[in-house]
C-alpha cells in the first residue's frame, strides 16, 4: 500500500472541525492564575508529598486514594470506592457522581498511580488535578446527563492493558451493570508545553500533518469514537483560545490507546484521551525526573478551563 492510501486508511475519522488557535496566547486572567495554583497544589501533594504511587508502595497508593476522596467530599460529592485484589493487596478505583436528569452518564477520569521508579507529576497527577478541578467547579450543578468523575488505579505497567488494569476492571463493572456511558474522557499527562521548533514528535506518518511545536493539547480517539472527537474538538476551538489538535484513527496505531480510554473501547463505549502527547513531547516521561517543578501550570490551567467548557457542552 502506498503512503497516500495508508494515510487515508488511518485517518478514517475525517478532518476536525474549526481551526486551531495560533499566535500569542491572550494575557492570563486572574481566574486562570487561581486555577494554576490549585492544579499545582494537587500535583505537588500527589507527586511531591506522597511521591511514588504503585503496588510496591501500597501505603502511597492508599494516601493518594484518601486525598482524592477527601477533595471530592469537600464539594459535597459522595465517593464510592471499588476495591479489587492485586499483588497481595486491595486497591481502589474511586468515583463520584453529579446527578443529572437522565440515566445517561458522561465520565471523566484519570489514573492516580505512577509508573514504578517515577513520582508521576505529569503522568498522571496532572490528570487527577484536572478531574478535581472539574469537581470543584461543577459539584453543585444539576446537568441533563449525569457527570461521573473517576480516579483509576494501576494504569501503569505491569498492569497496563491487562485484566488487572484499574480502568479495565472498572469498565467491565460498568458493562456488567448496563451503565449507559454516552462518552468517556481520559485525562492523561497534560502539563508539558513548548513553543520551540522540534519540541514535538510523532509516530510516523503523523509528522507529515501535525505541528513541530509541542504547544497544543491533543484530543485522540479511535474510529468508533470519531463523532465524539469531532464534537469535542469543534467546541474547544470555538470557545478556547489555545492550540489544539484532534485525531480519530485506528486504535492499533502507536500511542493512540495508551491510557484509560482504551479500557472503555474494550467494553464497547465511545472514549477519547486528552493529552499533551506524553512521550512524544515530555522528556521526563516515565523517569525519576517527572517532578512537580517540570510542569507548565499556567498553560495547564488554560487547558483545564477549556475542558470544563467541553464537558458542559457534552452534558447538554
Describe the model:
The structure is a single chain. A hairpin with a 2-residue loop joins β1 and β2. 36% of the residues lie in helices and 19% in strands. It has one domain: Zn peptidases (Aminopeptidase, 3-Layer(aba) Sandwich). The protein starts with a helix and ends with a helix. It has 316 residues and is an alpha/beta fold.
Which helices and strands occur, and which strands form pairs?
Layout: H1 3-10, H2 30-50, H3 58-74, E1 79-86, E2 89-98, E3 104-111, H4 121-138, E4 146-152, H5 166-177, E5 180-188, E6 217-222, H6 226-239, E7 244-249, H7 261-266, E8 271-275, H8 297-314
Parallel strand pairs: 3-4, 3-5, 5-8, 6-7
Antiparallel strand pairs: 1-2, 2-4, 6-8
Record keyword descriptors for this entry.
alpha/beta, eight-stranded mixed sheet, 36% helix, Aminopeptidase, 316 residues
Query: What CATH architecture do you see?
Result: 3-Layer(aba) Sandwich
Q: List the secondary-structure elements in sequence, H or E.
A: HHHEEEHEHEEHEHEH
**Main beta sheet: strand number and arrangement?**
8 strands, mixed
Report helical residue fraction: 25-40%
Name the CATH superfamily classification: Zn peptidases
Number of strands: 8
How many domain units?
Answer: 1
Shape: globular
CATH level-3 fold name: Aminopeptidase
The CATH C-level class name? Alpha Beta
**End-to-end separation:** 43 Å
